[in-house]
Each structure stands twice: as structure tokens, then as C-alpha cells.
Amino acid sequence: MSSPLRTWDDACIAFAQHLRAERNRSVHTVRAYIGDINDMADHAAQAGEGAPADITVTALRSWMQHLHERGLSRATTARRVTAVRMFFRWAHTAGYIAADPSARLGTPKVPKTLPHVLSEQQATQLLDVATSAADDRSAVQLRNLAVVELLYATGMRVGELVGLDLGSIDWSRRTVRVFGKGSKERSVPFGIPAETALRDYIDNGRSELVKSDAAALFLGARGKRLDPRAVRQLLDALIFHVPDAPAISPHTLRHSAATHVLEGGADLRIVQEMLGHSSLATTQVYTHVSVERLRSVYEQAHPRA
């Protein structure tokens, strides 16, 4: 058995190193996991279980109840429990603790909900609003149009979008090289409207924004790589002008792109590759979205629905 992890500081440092080096987790994910573990450890310490090797399944269940009493959603609780289970499984496998106290710990069931999507008409209206805003030829509005066009064209995550560099674009093939979760690389095609918006932004707007990060494709007003929060804010501003459209996020455009491609006849595995899903089961949710939308239209349109 390896030397025991005597303090939570030692445990968190070792586990964070494992997540970065062996699981290839992002800085954000590592920070979230360590925060969840510290939260559990603080609760367990109140019951006198101070060291990692002291934790019992009773203490873990008490912590889960505490999360529920704090009013956290099932999804948030499930994510935190997953982080803690991952920690104890690692600590046991590595020989730091004699037994895994989380082995008999249940995970809250999260009800499956279908993702919200824009209709094709709403997506077109959103892009029309962005196009109209770019008529002022300002660098920021040209960038915003390119951002929205590329998000909807590729279905990429907002973190993937802001991580793009100028060299990520293959103009000859009209594809973009994306690094997804776990640094997995994929090439995603985009259409002529996105190409037009990207070229216009790069040729006529980007140079006004460049200051410190010359490699980044999308830049913020201060010249640094565009922040995901800025993408959410620009979408909020644009969708305000689309009648009857719901509030959206960058992930809404990802869901919408996947749904519209499937409705257009694409194979599910093609959509899986486009989105960078490791499991086809994750992609299959979009088939349910399409069926639900078909039923909604059917009930409105068919005389005997």
C-alpha cells in the first residue's frame, strides 16, 4: 500500500496532478472537482472524520443529505458526488486508502430533459440580426457575425470556439480544426455563409482588435482572446431582436445545429463526429428532439391529430 494521504491538502494536490496528467482534464474541471472534494471534507470534519482514510459511507451519505438541504439541484448534486466517487476510486486504486467508502454510495438520478433548440426560422432570424448589425462595419460587429455563423455552422462548444487560432481554419477544405474535451482533435466543416463572415472579419475587422494575442482567431475589445462570457452576452443582445425566441446560450446554437442537421437527413454518426461526442448515446438525444418537434408540428397541422 502506498503512503497514506494524511491531509486533504496532500490528497487534493495528488488528485489534481492525476486529473491533469492522466485524465487530461481542463483547469476549470480540476478546480471544480477539488472544490467538491473540499466541500465534502469540511462536512466530514464536523463529524470527526478528518483524514481521507477516515471517511465512511455514512459520512458521505450525510454530506449528500446536506447538499439536498442546501437546495442544490439533482444535477449539481450528481456532479459533486461523481467528483467525490472519482477521487475515492483513484485513492483506493493507487493504494492510498485501504477501502473505497464511495463504492456503496448511490448517485442521485437526474431526470432527462430535452435540450432547447431554435427553429430553423428563428436561427435564420438570429443570423439576419447579426448581419444587419455588421452593416456598420465595426470590428466588433464583424466579429460577432463571424462568431454566430461559425457556432451555428459547426455546433462547436463555446470553449472550443474561443480556443481557435488563425491557423485552425483550413480554407481549401472549408473546415475548422477543433480541440474538444480531453484535447481530442476533430475537423468540422462549415458553409459558405460562415466562410464569408470569417473572411470579412479577418480582412476588415480583426486587425483593429489585435493587441496581445496575435494567434487567437476571435479577440475581445481589449485585444485578448475572446472570453466565453462575451459570447453569451452578444447572443443575449442579438436574440432580443428575434420575435418570440427563447433566451439562448452558445449551447443552444450547438443543440440547434445538431437538430437541424439531423432533420435534414444526416446520419447520426456524422452528427456524433461533428459534435465531438465520445458516445453515440449522447448524440441520440437529438433524435428525440426531432421526434418531439415533429409531433408538435403534427398536432398543430393535422386535422385529425
Task: Report on the architecture of this protein.
57% of the residues lie in helices and 4% in strands. With 305 residues, it is mainly α. The protein has two domains: 8-93; 120-301, Orthogonal Bundle (hpI Integrase, Chain A). Strand 2 and strand 3 (185-189) form a beta hairpin. Helix 5 packs antiparallel against helix 6 (139-154), helix 6 crosses helix 11 (250-263) and helix 11 runs antiparallel to helix 12. The termini are far apart.
What tags apply to this protein structure?
305 residues; 3 strands; hpI Integrase, Chain A; mainly alpha; globular
Cα gyration radius (Å): 23 Å
Structural class: mainly alpha
Query: How many structurally independent domains?
Result: 2
Distance between the amino and carboxyl termini: 66 Å
CATH fold description of the largest domain: hpI Integrase, Chain A
Tally of helical runs: 14
Low-confidence stretches: none
Amount of helix? 55-70%
What's the SSE pattern? HHHHHHHEEEHHHHHHH
What is the approximate shape? globular
Second rung of CATH, namely the architecture of the largest domain: Orthogonal Bundle
Number of strands: 3
Describe the largest sheet: 3 strands, antiparallel
What's the CATH C level of the largest domain? Mainly Alpha
Strand content: under 5%
CATH H-level superfamily title of the largest domain = Intergrase catalytic core
The side-by-side strand order for the widest beta sheet comes to 1-2-3
What value does the average pLDDT take? 86
